[in-house]
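From: lab user (bench 3)
To: helpdesk
Subject: output format question, protein + 4-(N,N-dimethylamino)cinnamoyl-COA

Hello, I'm new to running complex predictions and I'm not sure whether the block I got back is the full result or only part of it. Here's what I submitted:
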Amino acid sequence: MSDYSDITVEKRQPGTLLITLNRPEARNALRTHLLSEIAAVLSDAEQDDMVTCVIITGGEKVFAAGADVKEMAEHNAVSLWRDERPRHWKSIREFSKPIIAAVNGFCLGGGFELAMHADIIIAGSNAQFGQPEINLGIIPGAGGTQRLVRTVGKSLAMKMILSGEFISADEALTAGIAAEITQPENTLRRAEKLAATIAKKSPIALKVAKQAILNAYETSLEQGLDNERKAFLFLAATEDRNEGIAAFMEKRSPKFTGN
Ligand code: DAK
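Helpdesk reply: Thanks, we reran it on our side. This is the complete output you should expect:
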């Protein structure tokens, strides 16, 4: 799969698709074309039963330095109004399968927002997270003000977005941004191991679980519990649920099909 200029895409192990941001000369800045390539890959992956889990990484040195500032300089209010990027972010947001971000080095601005679109962040110890948009006289534009506050709470979100200061991988772990920290050379390997574990689960249960968790951001506890109950009942009608329970009883590994 080499039809892309700003990313590389590989099926590295059963069930896992690896997307690597590939603009090292611009610290993987997310120009519109790069975002459109991610959206296109995810759109294909959504339909591909061979893909259960997606990893997004920027490599060992940098995840992404944010939106492409040189491209942004060409925009005015009207062109931003017509901008295609919100559509690409929407595609990423609506992808129904699990996404793991394997983050080393700078993870800034739109790059941090991309990582926060992922469901799990594995961070290298050299990772630095930040929303430096305020230094440019703007604010985060791909959900940063909303996702960060929901993840870390008001005080840290305010500190990061109002000051533009970065936080370390350790602070990101403590704040709940990252699920784990590893040595930078192991970040991708750890993400792949986790993806391999996830890819063995029922694809339909994974999607339902992801949606149920994301619903927690949208609803009251009572409504969320009600949604969970309905999702739980829905899964009770799936072949995968019968297979999972049968496999346990028969002391064998389940063979999930996503049905
Ligand atoms: N855009 C374009 N080029 C970038 C870049 C960026 N964000 N970051 C780095 N580069 C380029 C540099 O210009 C330089 O290119 P040359 O000068 O060699 O041609 C090359 O990458 C290497 O950069 P440095 O020499 O600066 O490398 P260092 O390792 O010393 O520093 C750094 C790395 C990441 C700390 C530094 O480059 C930096 O501070 N970069 C800018 C970070 C930043 O301000 N990011 C926030 C951008 S604003 C929206 C959605 C999202 C957004 C907005 C709207 N909508 C849907 C409406 C998001 C906005 C943002 O993310």
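A quick orientation on your result: The pocket of 4-(N,N-dimethylamino)cinnamoyl-COA is lined by residues 26-27, 29, 65-70, 80, 83, 85-86, 89, 106, 108-110, 132-133, 136, 141-142 (CB under 6 Å). Let us know if anything else is unclear.
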